[in-house]
Amino acid sequence: MSGCAPMRLHVEGDRSPRMVELRAPAEMLVGRDPAAGLRLPHDAVSRRHARLACSGGQWVAEDLGSRHGTVLDGVLLAPGKPVPFTHGSTIAIRPFVLRCEVPTAAPPSSRLSAADDPGSIIRTVAAEEGREKAPPPPKKQRKPGPSDLRMKHLGQ
């Protein structure tokens, strides 16, 4: 594979979480710089903090010699050494966290048509995903208490 699949980055850590999409062959500068593709406006973030790029068919993260570092899946990156990341990876550029996700198409069985019974489709998709819904538990009957017995005794 010569290119990289599109990658979504869910950016958390500021007042308004957002989503950014990476597409090959572009690379993205991450930092405080107004020209950065992913701007993270915080004093702890360097102007040119990190670079995200497609290299050799995989996404890589590279710290650009930032003051506070870049952490990929809990490991501090050495400056200037690109390290691959994948779906499910987290990139911490304190105080921000980038959660990586490869978008996938919905499975064919989850698409509805007018002729389908929506209830059976939902059950099929849930079963395929290993989360078949269990029937609700039966309602518990309340045990009669002392006040119920008095009412019965009084004929009410």
Structure report:
- With 156 residues, the chain is an alpha+beta fold.
- The chain has two helices and eleven strands, in the order E-E-E-E-E-E-E-E-E-E-E-H-H.
- The chain has two domains: 95 residues, Sandwich (Tumour Suppressor Smad4), CATH 2.60.200; 30 residues, no CATH class.
- 12% of the residues lie in helices and 29% in strands.
- A hairpin with a 2-residue loop joins strand 5 and strand 6.
- The longest helix has 11 residues.
List keywords for this structure.
12% helix; alpha+beta; 6-stranded antiparallel β-sheet; 5-stranded mixed β-sheet; 2 domains; Tumour Suppressor Smad4; 156 residues; elongated; 29% strand
Summarize the helices and strands and which ones pair or pack:
Blueprint: E1 7-12, E2 18-22, E3 28-31, E4 38-39, E5 50-55, E6 58-63, E7 71-72, E8 75-76, E9 83-84, E10 90-93, E11 96-101, H1 118-128, H2 146-153
Parallel strand pairs: 3-4
Antiparallel strand pairs: 1-2, 1-11, 3-5, 5-6, 6-9, 7-8, 7-10, 10-11
Number of beta strands:
11
What is the name of the CATH architecture of the largest domain? Answer: Sandwich
Strand count, sense and barrel status of the largest sheet are: 6 strands, antiparallel
| CATH level 1 class label of the largest domain | Mainly Beta
Write a concise synopsis of the structure shown:
This protein is an alpha+beta fold. The chain has two helices and eleven strands.
